[in-house]
Amino acid sequence: MVGKDNLRAEDLNLCFEKLMMLGGNGIQKGGVKMEGGIITEWKDIPTELLLQIVSLVDDKTVIMASGVCRGWRDAICLGLTHLSFSWCSKNMNNLVLSLAPKFTKLQNLILRQDKPQLEDHAVETIANCCHDLQVLDLSKSFKLSDSSLYSLAHGCPNLSKLNISGCSAFSDSALAYLASFCHKLKVLNLCGCVKAASDRALQAIGCYCSQLQSLNLGWCDNVSDVGVMSLAYGCPDLRTLDLCGCVRITDDSVIALANRCLHLRSLGLYYCQNITDRAMYSLAYSRVKKTSMWEPVNEIKDEDGLRTLNISQCTALTPPAVQAVCDSFPSLHTCSGRHSLIMSGCLNLMSVHCACAFHAHRTTSNVAHPAH
């Protein structure tokens, strides 16, 4: 338990002196001059300055400071909106149970773990106390079950960013339930959630989470075209989608994304070996179609459209189809240091090059063979 006994008065005074040095010109001998008087020791710090100070220190120090006295506790608990427990390698569960009822104004909470500690009752406490929560990271929480998602659905309807990557115990019914309550989700990481990320869950996300912009479905091998097409039709503002290892998807998924998600900037298709040239030409054509439908060719910006495409291990693709995509999206690069068109394991695609490579080759040729 973190409390004032963990901090000695001399430690606080030393910290106070160091923190006050950040004030620069405001420092005078004997303290820091402020309107209404001079601060000479840590007990004199007003709430506004205290909150500024805690914004400069690490989260462990913030938690320790909240246990110094009632005034500091109230000020920090009511004023703090961002907090991370990732530094806690032991007893994270007990710490969350103890502090969640106090930090009721949290909007951003990071509970990422190297080894599983968090349990359902801790998440339930968060859901019951932190109703303003918008960003939550529960990655690698292997001990959590569906009850955690049900609690979040009811207690944290304002979630906009949720990371549950590696939470392999969650079911698709619990994820679908969460989606039906959390309509403001914009960023969702489901990497490795093999049970939760099913077509059923993706249909619910497509139905309820129309604001979704980023989704990671890495290695969710139960996902098929049915789920991805539901996303494409229900989440038109989708900008980043990682489908690496989703071995069941076919060209139909990519075609739906190309036709419906016109703001798509990053697409990961690593090891999706059912993807063929048909999918690549649909992506290239979506650029042409968008240009002809919405704006003049001379107003299209390089940063519009795909900026990252991973087709590593997609061995069915041929150079002409991939080159068509590369030519359609100037932000896709194969040149050294700018690899945003990733083609590892596709030896047959070595002839594909971005515009930069062609310009570099032309420049080299001109230097090597000057005009007479």
Automatic annotation (TrEMBL):
SUPFAM superfamilies membership: F-box domain (SSF81383), RNI-like (SSF52047)
Residue span, F-box/LRR-repeat protein 15-like leucin rich repeat domain: 156-318
Pfam family membership, one: DUF7885
Domain F-box: 42-77
Coiled coil: none
GO biological process: SCF-dependent proteasomal ubiquitin-dependent protein catabolic process
A GO cellular component annotation in the UniProt record: SCF ubiquitin ligase complex
Alphabetical list of Gene3D superfamilies matching this protein: 1.20.1280.50, Ribonuclease Inhibitor (3.80.10.10)
InterPro entries: F-box-like_dom_sf, F-box_dom, FBXL15_LRR, Leu-rich_rpt_Cys-con_subtyp, LRR_dom_sf
Superkingdom assignment: Eukaryota
Protein name (Swiss-Prot/TrEMBL): F-box domain-containing protein
Organism encoding this protein: Carya illinoinensis (Pecan)
